[in-house]
Design a protein that fits this description.
By secondary structure, the protein is α/β, with parallel strands linked by helices. The chain folds into 2 domains: 129 residues, Alpha-Beta Complex (Aspartate Aminotransferase, domain 1); 258 residues, Type I PLP-dependent aspartate aminotransferase-like (Major domain) (Aspartate Aminotransferase, domain 2), CATH 3.40.640. It has 13 helices and 17 strands. It is globular and about 70 Å long. The structure holds pyridoxal-5'-phosphate.
């Protein structure tokens, strides 16, 4: 069974078997990822790229092999177009502070959407404060779907960047990013896609999407924490100035001037998260071996099952009911505070997330300060969903 490959699921909480429904916050890792990380530290522990000794060569080969695996997973034209970062947050900040900053003057516009994670809002706000650019927002409807009919008007000759989330972490909405990118490109606006929540659930093909940038968080796609990817079109990456200075990103340094390294090393100053990178490569291989088709089908099936069961709970309102959704169900229950619900469920061994999920503007739209969120992964089971629904019922009875 696939589930047996995830030792992190096989624990007890308050004496109850864990039911892990907080996958959108961070997923569990398969043994293969844990082994890859451990193998690095125990069998070829060395720094990469600069060493001529055997262990350094093996570590370098594994780290660069991981880049290749990730490139295959997202169908990038070349692994060189993948920059290792700490995750989606760092990837977005990198683009904001290099590519976008260079293109912006006072009065220019950056377009984002109403359902962005704070990490795809705040970097752009900071940039606007520093450059005098203006942040504009694509609205959404009451199901949590973007109102794309507004795009033609929202994109103006001052729009210099569009940044949009592929899959919303709080609403579960899968945005039609290919269509958004085509519309933006027709007006010569480059697009960054925040893909943090997409890869754990669905196939991503950056060439088919034609996105200018795509960001990935390793820990959401069954990989280690503190590692992620920024994919970019080669012409952008080559033209962009470096972001952080230091070792590795240079070809030659004198006190007078520095010649920068080629892409992607130009953006990877300092010793990277070597173990994390190797673990991420193992996660990519794991996903490809399981098969995205299988993951996607299981996801859809779990979402349908959970949605039906949850909707039968008295007073429960789902927040985010888009026609095209991934396996994330945010909800509120009349008379029950989400934090209280989360605390009671924890005592039953169930892990869910409560609060604003780093998407305060999206929740303000629904006029709720926070929600409870159950987010599923392919290793979750119908029995777990039944148990979760029973425990939510019990908690509701306790509070109402
Ligand atoms: N974007 C979305 C949609 C997310 O869900 C998250 C994390 O929850 C992020 C960005 C930030 O990812 P990270 O913390 O891995 O940088």
């Amino acid at each position: 069974m696939l589930r047996d490959q995830f030792p992190g699921l096989n624990v007890t909480v308050h004496g109850k078997p864990l039911v892990y429904l907080d996958n959108a916050a961070t997923a569990c890792r398969p043994q293969r990822v844990l082994d890859a990380v451990q193998e690095y530290y125990t069998r070829f522990n060395a720094n990469i790229h600069r060493g001529v000794h055997t262990l350094s060569e093996i570590a370098t080969e594994r780290f660069e092999g991981a880049r290749e695996s990730m490139a295959r997973l997202i169908n990038a034209p070349s692994a060189r177009q993948l920059v290792f970062t700490r995750g989606s947050t760092e990837s977005i900040n990198l683009v904001a502070n290099t590519f976008a900053r260079e293109r912006l003057s006072a009065g220019d516009e950056i377009l984002i959407s109403y359902m962005e994670h704070h990490s795809n809002i705040v970097p752009w706000q900071l940039l606007c404060q520093q450059t005098g650019a203006v942040l504009k927002v694509i609205p959404m409807n009451e199901r949590g779907e973007l109102r794309l009919e507004t795009l033609d008007e929202l994109i103006t000759e001052r729009t210099k960047m569009l940044a949009v989330v592929h899959v919303s972490n709080s609403l579960g909405t899968i945005n039609p990013v290919k269509e958004i990118i085509a519309k933006a490109h027709a007006r010569e606006v480059p697009v960054l896609v925040d893909g943090a929540q997409a890869l754990p659930h669905m196939a991503v093909d950056v060439q088919d999407l034609d996105c200018d940038f795509y960001t990935i968080s390793g820990h959401k796609m069954y990989g280690p924490t503190g590692i992620g990817i920024l994919y970019g079109k080669m012409e952008h990456l080559e033209a962009m100035p470096p972001w952080q200075g230091g070792g590795e990103m240079i070809a030659k340094v004198t006190f007078e001037r520095t010649v920068f390294n080629h892409v992607p090393a130009k953006f990877e100053a300092g010793t990277p998260n070597i173990a994390g990178g190797i673990g991420l490569g193992a996660a990519a291989e794991f996903i490809m071996d399981v098969g995205m088709d299988k993951i996607q089908a299981r996801d859809a099936e779990l979402l349908a099952y959970a949605t039906e069961k949850m909707q039968a709970i008295d007073g429960l309102r789902l927040i985010g009911t888009a026609a095209c959704k991934t396996a994330v169900n945010s909800f509120v229950i009349d008379g029950v505070h989400p934090h209280d619900l989360g605390t009671v469920l924890d005592h039953y061994g169930i892990a869910i997330r409560t609060g604003h999920h780093c998407t305060m503007p999206a929740l303000q739209f629904f006029k709720v300060p926070g929600t409870a969120r159950a987010s599923f992964a392919f290793y979750n089971t119908h029995e777990e969903i039944d148990y979760f629904v029973d425990c939510v019922q019990k908690a509701r009875e306790m509070f109402t």
